[in-house]
Amino acid sequence: MLLITGGAGYIGNHACIELLNTGYELVVIDNFSNSKVEALTRVQEITGKKFKVYNASLLNSDILEKVFSENHIDGVMHFAGLKSVGESVKLPLDYYHNNITGTISLCMTMQKYGVKKLVFSSSATVYGVPEWVPIQEDFPLRATNPYGRTKQMTEEILADLCQSDEDWSIAALRYFNPIGSHPSGRIGEDPNGIPNNLIPYITQVAIGRIDELKVLGHDYPTQDGTGVRDYIHIEDLAKGHVKAIEKVISTNGFHTYNLGTGRGYSVLEIVNVFEKISGKKIKYSLIDRRPGDIAVCYADPSKANRELNWVAEKGIEEMCSDAWRWQLNNPNGYEEVSEPMAMGINS
Ligand code: WQD
């Protein structure tokens, strides 16, 4: 049985589907601060599988204790965390407390119950501004914002933990830019308020919730002047997590892996692809760069390809069409229909 922290989130609930379909039994803990119970209701609908859900923060050590004492946990997949770069600059203490203290609280409870298998949700933001691309796992870590530093510091803590006790087995997965949705269109990215990220912003322009896309920077040293990123289908990312937990169960030590495609696309290339697959014109204006953004970022995924026997398979058109299907089917995202108690939630 696996404990999934933050299982109601965009990445967490796509991973839950892949894990359930692979045959894992799950328990989810989520405080629903940036997600909806409805997402988990739909995971159960899509997979036909049930699982317990605990409505709590990882900072609530009583509930964490309850989770581990009531369930036989073999390993943990840890998604729970605050993840907005911009917000982290304004609220660093919230980010350090929630993301780092929360992880330490989780690991101390794991240690108490002898659970030492962990997959950690890290991020390509740990690399900061790379010297060159494609980015490899042994590149220097130099995050440039509090959010990225919480991921970098957490990786260092987890590496020390593995150094201290050889029974620990931990994989830190460095995500590039996850986009798209489960092909059913029943689950997807549902940001609170105005989206920070490009794809949900574009789909909200296409559905008419937002008037136009602001292209953040058009003077980057790229072929069309707009930012280049390594967009990876959320389904490929989720499948990478199944491979990672299998690796963690069968080995020991601390390992990091880039989960990306190895291919970059510019903002304007994404706009063109999206217009082609949706038949919608995306109105946009070119404005100044967003502070902290980098010009080009894409992965060398060969270590994950080799050691996890995992390759991202889905192309950019499928990423955009799956994202569009989610938005078309859910113009206002998950309109909360399930109360937290509706999931048999223990809290
Ligand atoms: C992509 C490109 C923007 C919005 C962020 C987090 C990172 C990770 C992934 C968690 C860039 C441009 C964007 C818009 C735009 N999340 N853009 N107009 O910044 O690469 O990474 O999400 O780990 O931590 O930093 O993703 O989607 O915000 O931007 O032009 O309205 O789209 O400049 O070139 P980013 P993004």
Task: Jot down its keywords.
3-stranded mixed sheet; 17% strand; 40% helix; alpha/beta; Rossmann fold; 347 residues; single chain; 11 helices; binds UDP-4-deoxy-4-formamido-beta-L-arabinopyranose
Notes on the protein architecture:
The longest helix is centred in the N-terminal third of the chain and has 21 residues, at 92-112. Helix 7 packs across helix 11 (316-329). The strands form 4 sheets. This protein has a 7-stranded parallel sheet with strand order 3-2-1-4-5-6-11, with helices on both faces. It has 347 residues and is α/β, with parallel strands linked by helices. The relative contact order is 0.16. The protein has 11 helices and 14 strands. The mean pLDDT is 96. 40% of the residues lie in helices and 17% in strands. It has a single domain (2-346), classed as NAD(P)-binding Rossmann-like Domain (Rossmann fold). The structure holds UDP-4-deoxy-4-formamido-beta-L-arabinopyranose (WQD). Residues 83, 85, 123, 125, 175, 177, 196-198, 201, 214-217, 227, 229, 267, 290, 293 line the site of UDP-4-deoxy-4-formamido-beta-L-arabinopyranose.
